[in-house]
Amino acid sequence: MKLSEIKPNPNNPRLVRDDKFKKLCQSIKSFPEMMALRPIIVDENNIIQGGNMRFKALSEMNYKDVPDEWIKQGKDLTPEQWKEFVIKDNVGFGEWNWEIITIDWETETLKDWGLDVPNWSAGNEMNEMSDEDVDITDEFDPIGEAKNLIKIIFIFDNDIKASEFYKKYNIPYQYKVMNGGTGGDSKVW
Predict the structure, then answer these.
(1) Rounded to an integer, what distance in angstroms lies between the CA atom of residue 110 and that of residue 29?
(2) Which long-range CB contacts under 8 A does 118-126 form with residues at least 24 apart?
(3) CA-CA distance, 62 to 38, in Å (whole number)?
(4) Which of 68, 53, 50 is CA-nearest to residue 5?
(5) How many alpha carbons lie under 13 Å from residue 168 in its C-beta half-sphere?
(6) Full-prediction pTM beyond 0.85?
(7) Which residues does residue 47 pair with via DSSP β-bridges, in sequence order?
(8) What is the pLDDT of residues 42-93, one digit of tens each?
(9) In this structure, which of 11, 50, 109, 134 has its CB flanked by the most CB atoms within 10 Å?
(10) Helix (H, G, I), strand (E, B) or coil at 52
(11) What is the secondary structure of 111-155 as a DSSP string?
(12) 64 class by beta-carbon count within 10 Å (0-12 exposed, 13-18 middle, 19+ buried)
């Protein structure tokens, strides 16, 4: 099929910005078979309803013709159903299971594929805390014996958010007032 036969949706509500767009182009270059598995969806007038950014990437990479299976035409949908499709096609209903991801995939590969991987070590830098600030001793051990326990540290923006979190999950808590390094005291819960 000729790319010139299909038209971008002027009301497309999704954007892919610079870095993500480059990753999308690279993704199509390195794994073009995925286009057949997740084709561009057009209506009966060949206006794109799903896959505007893939179309833009193909155009940017100077594709003129694409295999027919890269484009799928939806038929017999009402204008309201098409509007619903445009949104639902882009909604992420699920969430990532980071435990499985960190075991089975390499972080840099995931980033190259376009996945926003959390920066697990960002907490200390973002909060200007040192490792010493995070070292909570046995005085915060809720059962009085620290061996064979795993310490988990939560950092909150303020006392209210911390209190709401612990109340929501019915978790007993303690906190330690410490100098946050910016001249003011902060609490480690």
Answers:
(1) 16
(2) 123/153, 123/155
(3) 20
(4) 68
(5) 6
(6) no
(7) 7
(8) 999 999 999 999 999 999 999 999 999 999 999 889 999 998 998 888 887 7
(9) 50
(10) helix
(11) HHTT-----TTHHHHHTT--HHHH---GGG-TTS--TT-------
(12) exposed
Q: Give the amino acid at 26.
A: Q
Place of tokens 């155009």: 59
Domain map (residue ranges) of the chain? 3-112, 122-188
Looking at residue 61, the DSSP 8-state letter turns out to be: T
Q: Contact, 178 vs 137, CB < 8 A?
A: no
In 3D space, the residue among 57, 15, 20 whose CA is nearest the CA of residue 35 turns out to be 57
Which residues have a Cβ under 8 Å from the Cβ of 135 and sit 6 or more positions away?
A: none
The CA–CA distances, whole Å, from 112 to 79, 106, 143 equal 36, 10, 44
* Amino acid, single-letter form, for residue 82: W
- For the stretch 130-175, pLDDT in tens is 555 555 554 555 555 556 666 666 777 777 888 888 888 777 766 6
Q: What is the 3-state secondary structure (H, E, C) of 11-29?
A: CCCCCCCHHHHHHHHHHHH
Token pair, residue 83, equals 């509007």
Placement of tokens 């699920």 in the chain: 94
Count Cβ atoms below 10 Å from residue 70 Cβ, excluding itself.
Answer: 23
The residue with tokens 């330690």 is 176
